[in-house]
Amino acid sequence: MMERGVEIPQALTSGPSAFIPAQVMEGPDREVLIEAFLSLGRFDHITMVMALHPTYLSCFLRTQHALLELDGPLPRPWRHYIVAMAAARHQCSYLVQQHSAGFLEAGGEESWLEGLQHAHPKIRCLHTLNKLLAHRPWLITQQHIQELVCPGADACWSLAELIHAIVLMTHSHSLSSFVWGCGLHPEPDHVGGHTFCPPSPSNNMPRSPHSPTPEDGKPEVRFEMQSRSLDK
Question: What keywords would UniProt list here (predicted)?
């Protein structure tokens, strides 16, 4: 492939965590590996680190699967979007990218990833509550909930929908802390998780048109930055 001028992506890191040496991370039990793959469709860095505590990982996988995949009041694309929106409060690019991809895979509209202002009005109404849950949850009052569920609200949420959204946001806030605290590296398919081998100096083949450049912005990154900018 390289002889034809096609650049090969290379992972930038050798392990899932900046703090835990890869050589001390034992391979997970086969049952845990199967459960993780069936739940997520991949074996990501969160799973690899949590696999150091198999019982906790098993509970985590079941909980996240229930929140994101099982029957519930919120559409599947909305669930991933809310998780990404909540992770953006902590500038957790890892989760923003992961759930932006999940949002698109579930059938979400790509334009929503341009920023919160492009999302459904009901989603936009969560902005204040999300901000308080992330940084000052003790300031949340009955009025914040009433503004979202009262029949006269501009974009009225049902109580079941709002409970589901709040659980998703708090789950994302907590998981963002886990990602930061464990120093998780980006996944190989995330922005910042890979690089491309340059063509050989002796080979003057042109650059592949499909190779990303530093100025190529992905929707999930723009979503993260713009959702934060709404506070300014």
Answer: Cytoplasm, Oxidoreductase
